[in-house]
Amino acid sequence: MQTNFTPTQLADPKTAEAEGIIRKCVHCGFCTATCPTYVTLGNELDSPRGRIYLIKEMLENARPADARTALHVDRCLSCLACTTTCPSGVDYMHLIDQARVHVERTFKRPPLVRLQRWALAYFMTSPTRFRLAMTLAGIGRPFAGIMKRIPALKAFGAMLELAPRALPARSRFAEPGTFPAKQPRRQRVAMLSGCVQPVMDPGINQAAIEMLNNLGIEVVLPKNEGCCGSLRHHMGHEDAALASARRTIDAWIAEMDGEGLNAIIITGSGCGTTIKDYGHMFKADTAYAEKARRVSALARDVMEYLDSLELPQQPSRGMTVAYHSSCSLQHGQRITLQPKALLRRAGFAVKEPAEGHLCCGSAGTYNMLQSDIADQLKARKVRNLKALKPDVIAAGNLGCITQIGSAANIPVLHTVELMNWAYGGKKPAALK
Ligand code: SF4
Ligand code: SF4
């Protein structure tokens, strides 16, 4: 795509990066066929190519985002299906990241939208605050349906609808500490605790820790670790996202330079995609560039890490798993084959749904901020998964598990919960 940035604009490294990304786009339109918002809405401006054009106009003219640009940027799921499809290698992820920051800084959203975005960023980035929010949501939950029918309150209704009726008990696997290997120690890893996951579903990290401990891996949940910054990063809150990430980088670097780490394990693929990008996010930060690069180099999705351990083949469990590949895992981290191969090695029959490349509509805070589109994507995803007639659905990201689980009427588990069970760990509670 031809661009018209001035030399002064291009002296800014971020603008130069955006220009390089935009220039790679050759307008071929291949990406439109796999873009969930284009497939759902049929509007060119809700396709990757359309958004690239809008972002180019906004950045080239150095103007504040207008309502039209903000609308179509906000409707992007950041699912990155377009990056998998694009034959020209357009790095859409780093372009939309920049666009979100620009929109956030220059566009004034309606007051209720701003309030909702503030609430999501505040409550979903700390387990303590999130637990409080879920307790309050329990009171408001009966009104979710009514609120969803009132346009101004629709987003708040969507937030309440996703709140669980009861929270699981607090888990020791969500607290900082060291979980020793149950065999002679082979490796030592850190694990990201997370913000929402330890409150909504502490069984995920419990299963991962139990399995790793049984395989001779010591797991540490570092003391000063906080939010990885992913949620705020995707809302365009750049400074807050980087501040959260710095704190977590410091906690991991202390472990790396202390007892040492073989890997940093992440059980939420949305967080994992951001952590693997820290090296890029901090490349201009002289104090953190090297530390961020070291952290990104050690970051592993839990299934990616298990794949490196050469697990033995287990007998058949007589169960069919429908595997939902989260966008952050398949498009963001390009981890596609390992989870399915590992599930088969664990003794499960694995089936894949039609349109596996399409997002389920969860996408961080998307199902609350863009609930109409998210609901359509959820219905489509659940229809495709249920067509497989599985005993259980597996996914590698809590957001997808919650989104699909809210409509599937079939147990939806994290892949590592099935793996842990197959290799001698506890049977997941949802299957009992
Ligand atoms: S990230 Fe997903 S929703 Fe956004 S333009 Fe790309 S394919 Fe479409
Ligand atoms: S597939 Fe790539 S090159 Fe083609 S229009 Fe989409 S982003 Fe541009």
Q: What are the SSEs and their pairings?
A:
Blueprint: H1 7-10, H2 13-24, H3 36-41, H4 48-60, H5 67-74, H6 81-85, H7 92-106, H8 111-123, H9 127-140, H10 144-149, H11 154-162, E1 177-179, E2 187-191, H12 197-200, H13 203-214, E3 217-221, H14 230-234, H15 238-257, E4 263-266, H16 269-276, H17 278-281, H18 289-298, E5 299-301, H19 302-307, E6 320-324, H20 327-332, H21 337-345, E7 349-351, H22 366-369, H23 371-386, E8 392-395, H24 398-408, E9 412-414, H25 415-422
Parallel strand pairs: 2-3, 2-4, 4-5, 6-7, 6-8, 8-9
Antiparallel strand pairs: 1-3
Bound molecules: iron/sulfur cluster (2 copies).
Residues 25-31, 48-49, 82, 85-86, 88, 90 line the site of one iron/sulfur cluster.
